[in-house]
Amino acid sequence: MASVQYTTQLQAGLGLVAETKALLDLWRPGMSTRQLQEVARESGSFPTITARRLRNIVNECFAPRYLISDASPAAHLKRLAAYVPMADLMQLMLLFTSRANPILGDFIREIYWARYAGGYQQISNEGARAFVERAIDDNRTSKRWSETTVRRVAAYLTGCCADYGLLEKGAKSNRRILPYRVTPTASAYLAYDLHSKGLGDNALLTHQDWQLFGMSREDVIDELKRLSLKGHMIVQAAGDVVRIGWKHQSMEALCDVISKS
DNA sequence: AAACTACAAGATGCAGCGAG
DNA sequence: CTCGCTGCATCTTGTAGTTT
User: Fold this and answer.
1) Given a cut of 70, is residue A85 above it in pLDDT?
2) Residue A122 CA to C15 C1' — how many Å?
3) Integer distance in angstroms from CA A168 to C1' C19?
4) C-alpha dist (Å) from residue A20 to A86, A88, A111, A214
5) Interstrand relation of A174-176 and A233-238 (parallel, antiparallel or unpaired)
């Protein structure tokens, strides 16, 4: 159990799909958070947004999600953005947003997929609220949140899921669960991402990031086998041991191959 | 029963504030 | 300064009451 603290950072912005895409266009490798903020302000891409709000979006949402690890997420997404469908980008945004905001990742892993598997039709903000209250009881927050903050963070969790396509959109307190499945682009990216971080082939299969997409170890193996048909890798499964032959030399190489397919 | 209206309740965008 | 939390304003949605 990663005992990372939960924060209310999601409140600075939920999915921000369109804003993220616009910022990726403006961002250049090597650009700092502050520079991006300035470029965005002067670009005219955000005519209706105040400087204060832009600071929220860039510093509290874009930077923690995509400018970590030497900005590699931003660099990769920028490479992909022009070529791959929005649905693929949104899955990767979900991945990075969940890593930046552990409360969202845990909510998806523990509540969303449990409800999905249980055959429920919808998830309510009340349900999300119960999750938040339990987290506070478990000392996952630095202090006990106020009543309004609990209610709002609960709504942000479901709202963010809606932005990324896991739940029905719109301002609702009870959202329908939508069919959701990892795409080949997202799974190939995640597999190579974990590999490039130094995870062994077997440890990689059970990494918690797969559970954002509701995938068990066996689901991951099946998915990697499908990817092998596309030539991304070679998978050898013998009993409990899995060996993967990695075809691409780097994340950059993978992104280029995906873009050209 | 359907359509319309008015109002309450809820959701979200935004920005200020205190702590460190 | 940055980070994390919360209050406020606005917009959206649900609903009760009224009219057709």
Assistant:
1) yes
2) 22
3) 35
4) 12, 14, 26, 24
5) unpaired
